[in-house]
């Protein structure tokens, strides 16, 4: 009898232990990661992405003689009261004029005169590429603008941002490495349909992927321009140069780097001495945005280095609390592809990012998604061999979002084990939304292309590094 009671006691103790284990396992899989690293288990289709054919409706040219096509806008000054309008005509140069008006004063139409340019690339000659900067716009206003003449003229609209201010909410979309495949079209559609409406896109480089085609077929730059017009004619995309935008091809006699990209996509780099079309900055709402070039010299004494050093000193977090840096090649990337490619830039600039408490760094290049915790690797030198990134609340969050869906396909090979700095990674296509709420809080979400619709697959709150530098690693 005693033996029976003893066995019963042991059994019930064992049962309790098993229950405890089950509870523990369930809890760790449901609770938010407390400093843990997650590799998403989502299983995706891995067919090669394919460029949409030229006769796809998304590439259709507008009807009419010399009708403007590939219309796109970007910020045209340092604070958001200017817009650069660009378009291409194919039959003749035509007019360089933009007619524009505030929706509240339709009778008060204004005109701005731009300029036209063309370029040749191997056996390709571009259409007539027009650029026109309109300035002195009112903040927080809807403007219509018209390009082209007569029956072929086309009218679009955009909204200017609110005045620069410390608590101004603003929503940026994040798109990278888009290309022009069926997946690219899904990504752009999902961005357009996202209920949290992006007001401007931070584009992290690699636009058309023309260089992936024989002789860097520059007609792909034209089709890409027609493809994205449906978004970028209505809201500014802020451009970053990628490696597929270099177009350096000495075998084709093309030795001027970034020729198609810089001819087609001007940026407001004249705002600061030492900036260039490849590295520049803008302020918009409550954000100071610094765009860097992964494919320009960045070492000490180079123009980019000298400019960035001064630019970081100019940032005033009391005016623009959110400090955003964009580049193409990610400084933190735990995929095998492009692994450590940007380490030169990391070694040179990371300590500045930490010193100036950059909030977030967006990059593309790797065709997948990854988000880091606030980690830094600035303690390293050749003698102490301290080369492991460590948690650092002054460091930015690094987001890799090169997952637009271009023809090169997804990056699926991951380094294992997942490093501690990596919070979440998933090789899927998608887009991001960076939603600034006020001076202290912003919400980042990543939206996977999921079997034909968009699904929020990762998100996190970011606490501003200047106004509220608390630990935000457990907010996903
Ligand atoms: Fe790239």
Task: Describe the fold and architecture.
- By secondary structure, this protein is of the alpha+beta class.
- The chain has helices at 2-30, 182-193, 219-232, 259-264, 303-314, 343-355, and strands at 38-39, 69-75, 83-89, 97-102, 110-113, 115-117, 120-121, 124-125, 128-134, 142-147, 154-159, 170-175, 200-203, 237-238, 280-284, 287-291, 322-326, 360-363, 369-372, 375-376, 390-391, 397-401, 422-426, 430-436, 441-450, 453-463.
- Residues 1-5 and 20-34 have low confidence and may be disordered.
- Fe (ii) ion (FE2) binds at residues 177, 206, 242-244, 328, 365.
Indicate the topology.
Layout: H1 2-30, E1 38-39, E2 69-75, E3 83-89, E4 97-102, E5 110-113, E6 115-117, E7 120-121, E8 124-125, E9 128-134, E10 142-147, E11 154-159, E12 170-175, H2 182-193, E13 200-203, H3 219-232, E14 237-238, H4 259-264, E15 280-284, E16 287-291, H5 303-314, E17 322-326, H6 343-355, E18 360-363, E19 369-372, E20 375-376, E21 390-391, E22 397-401, E23 422-426, E24 430-436, E25 441-450, E26 453-463
Parallel strand pairs: 1-23, 12-13, 13-14, 16-17, 17-18, 18-22
Antiparallel strand pairs: 2-3, 3-9, 4-5, 4-10, 6-9, 7-8, 10-11, 12-24, 15-16, 19-22, 19-23, 20-21, 24-25, 25-26
The chain binds fe (ii) ion (FE2).
Fe (ii) ion (FE2) binds near residues 177, 206, 242, 328 and 365.
